[in-house]
Amino acid sequence: MFAGLQDLGVANGEDLKETLTNCTEPLKAIEQFQTENGVLLPSLQSALPFLDLHGTPRLEFHQSVFDELRDKLLERVSAIATEGKAEERYKKLEDLLEKSFSLVKMPSLQPVVMCVMKHLPKVPEKKLKLVMADKELYRACAVEVKRQIWQDNQALFGDEVSPLLKQYIVEKESALFSTELSVLHNFFSPSPKTRRQGEVVQRLTRMVGRNVKLYDMVLQFLRTLFLRTRNVHYCTLRAELLMSLHDLDVGDICSVDPCHKFTWCLDACIRERFVDSKRARELQGFLDGVKKGQEQVLGDLSMILCDPFAINTLSLSTVRHLQELVGQELLPRDSPDLLLLLRLLALGQGAWDMIDSQVFKEPKMEVELVTRFLPTLMSFVVDDHAFNVDQKLPAEEKAPVSYPSALPETFTKFLQEQRVACEVGLYYVLHITKQRNKNALLRLLPGLVETFSDLAFGDIFLHLLTGNLALLADEFALEDFCSSLFDGFLLTASPRKENVQRHVLRLLLHLHHRVAPSKLEALQKALEPTGQSGEAVKELYSQLGEKLEQLDRRKPSPAQATETPALELPLPSDPSPAQGRPPRMPGAIREGRPTLQPDTRSRPGRSSSFSSLGLLFHVTTCPWWGEIRLHVTPRLPCPQHSPNAGDTQKESLSEPTDTTARSSGLPEEKRKAEPPLSWGQGPCGIPGLPSWKCQSGGPHSSDTSQPPRPLSFLAGLIRCLVSALSVGRRARLQREPRRSHQPPAPSFTHTSVWAP
Fold first, then answer.
1. Fewer C-beta within 10 Å: the chain N or C terminus?
2. In DSSP terms, which residues pair with 752 in a beta bridge?
């Protein structure tokens, strides 16, 4: 541990051991050793006894001094690395490294040695080999030192990069199989700059630094893995690494990468999710600018275009251009921007074949793709517009037109034989699904069963499709829709493709409560994992089973449904008021509950009234105290329908009692003009049921053919309360100057509802 101290002429533990072994007086030997190897400060010798009096050990004191000196030394080394001319400072650092390298295995001084090596642009080869041979020293050295080791040792660099590449692929796949289904938050939602802030991209950027040789090694690793696995996420990492170096303004690498400006322009298009005319011309200029003898650049360009984020942007732009051409009544061959998008798509889709064959040449554009397939897609757009316009016509002008269900054979053939056509067709399916166009989706689903290289069952397409299907959640209750989607498309590949099974389970986890029970049971049996299924499928299936059990527990059993009595409102069976008994209150006002007693206090204010459900409601406000009173009284018997109506009843209708008069809160002349309300045998012919019509058709009368709506009571109450609150607020504002003359606070009664 302290072996390096002997090379510098500093005594260590072995020297002390030898001294104590050969001495005759150990105490004097220890004191002499302390004097020779302690801090050589004359003033310190007299201060150390004070530390002894405070019980501070000498080891703690010397350790604190050592740490402070080491920090000062680290700061000085960093300052030397930035001061003066390059040759002078590097010469100082090399001399310091030569003197201190023998202490590199001493843990307390190792940071100083590593700091010196970090600031040296070229560490001596001999010392690099010593560091590489010792695993502990290799792990402890800075990444700047490791770069010098990696550039001459590709295998060691590959061992460092390989775990990061695996982690990157796992993160991308976990994002594709996320249980969250959303159109706004899917795999393509993060912006390019946000994606470049990921852990893997940042660590790779730091490992590469400004070293062009290491950058070429990383690109070679990505090409090799892309050829071996056909995983397009390596193409994404290739573009993200270059743009991450661009963000850090690493000109040493960006200036030598011929794909830098092309990737920069394409990154802007991905950020906007659209390729406009200006950027399309720039991209075309880069492709046309590839000179003879530099055709290998097309391999890197095709790999960058094979990035799923680039394919997504190009495909969305293609579908958008097709819709614009329909509105402009133009053919696809008349649009240069559309032809360029197809050219870029073809170059990106052919990346693997180009790198594998080492034939760096743009794939030839199929003429029928432009002259037959794209017009077929445009005809689908026209069919949708025609059907939507027909549905908006008036009933007398609308003809019995059904949505076209026939699928042209040429469309299915193109999906099976041409990769670019298949990609554009799949994104058109995603487009109509996002537009909630169920008819168009059911029309095109049969054509997706067999596609080029089973692209329709790829993770990226199924991820986007399941997210868009969440917008059609209400359609899953229909048997024909579920049969076409699951039986006619998804389940056809479920047994042989585990990823399809995972995506279907993701969809059902989100929409299981919308699917018909009979269909849900059949799907659960069809998706049951086998012994060869992976743990991810089993976990998703287990989660689906738990969801279905929770759904079953929420539903009432058939026995409970039959035993539950129907909600019936009891009808008043009391005699009419003419026989000497007051009518019973329907609804919540019954015998045995607190009786609403009118308040006999008289105060100036405003009152409002309305009737509903056989009751008369009066709301009275007092502006001085902000009091709101609610009085409820039953409707009085109607002489037109009551069989026992007589003179006594007429008198009671025309002359209300003092209690009723006081509770109404209305002026005397208004109360006399108020028509009496009826209670008795209503228009329905049931005795005792409150009628919905007053005797003379006054302000409370309503149509006898329609019962009052349940919400009329709430609406009337809200109107009265709002009116009362506004009056109370104005009154408080008026009395603000004379706050000292406020009357005492009133007392509460059963009939009062107070609102400050």
1. C
2. 629
Instruction: Read off the tokens for 722.
Output: 């709002």
Q: Show the CA angle centred on residue 451, arms to residues 445 and 455, nearest 5°.
A: 95
| CA–CA dist 198, 168 (Å, integer) | 9
What integer pLDDT is reported at residue 748 of this predicted model?
A: 39
Tell me the C-alpha to C-alpha distance, in Å, between residue 725 and each of 607, 622, 754: 12, 10, 11
Which residues make Cβ contacts (< 8 Å) with residue 180, sequence separation at least 6?
A: none
Give the whole-angstrom CA distance, residue 508 versus residue 503: 9
| pLDDT score, position 648 | 41
Q: Are 424 and 320 in contact (CB under 8 A)?
A: no
Q: Which residues contact 379 (CB under 8 A, 6 or more apart)?
A: none
Of the candidates 678, 670, 618, the residue with the CA atom closest to the CA atom of residue 652: 678
State the CB neighbour count (10 A cutoff) for residue 238.
23
Mean pLDDT by groups of 10 residues along the chain of 756 residues: 61 77 83 76 76 82 88 92 85 89 87 92 91 91 94 93 96 92 90 95 96 96 96 97 96 94 96 94 92 89 96 97 94 94 95 93 92 95 90 76 88 95 97 95 94 94 95 92 94 87 94 90 90 90 90 66 46 43 43 42 53 60 53 53 43 40 44 42 39 39 44 62 63 54 43 38
Handedness of CA 277, 280, 286, 289 (dihedral sign): negative
- Give the whole-angstrom CA distance, residue 595 versus residue 501: 66
Long-range contacts of the stretch 212-216 (C-beta < 8 A, 24+)? 212/252, 212/253, 212/256, 213/151, 214/147, 214/150, 214/151, 214/157, 215/241, 215/245, 215/253, 215/257
Distances 753 to 237, 661, 747 between C-alpha atoms, Å: 69, 19, 11
- The kind and range of the H/E element at 622 are strand 615-622
Q: Which two tokens stand for residue 104?
A: 């590199």
Do 465 and 430 contact (CB within 8 A), yes or no?
yes
Whether the CB-CB separation of 277 and 209 falls below 8 Å is answered with no
Residue type, 50: F
Q: How far apart are CA 89 and CA 268, in angstroms?
A: 42
**Distant-in-sequence contacts of 543-550, Cβ < 8 A, 24+ apart:** 543/505, 543/509, 544/505, 544/508, 544/509, 544/512, 547/509, 547/512, 548/512, 548/520, 548/524
pLDDT digits (tens, 9 = 90+) for 606-638: 566 656 555 666 656 554 444 555 565 655 544
From CA 421, how far away is CA 204, in angstroms rounded?
Answer: 36
The dihedrals phi and psi of 725, each to the nearest 5 degrees, come to -65, -40
pLDDT value, residue 590: 41
Q: What is the pLDDT of residues 300-328, one digit of tens each?
A: 999 999 999 999 999 999 999 999 999 99
Please report where in the chains the tokens 């003197």 appear, as a residue: 99
pLDDT of residue 726: 65
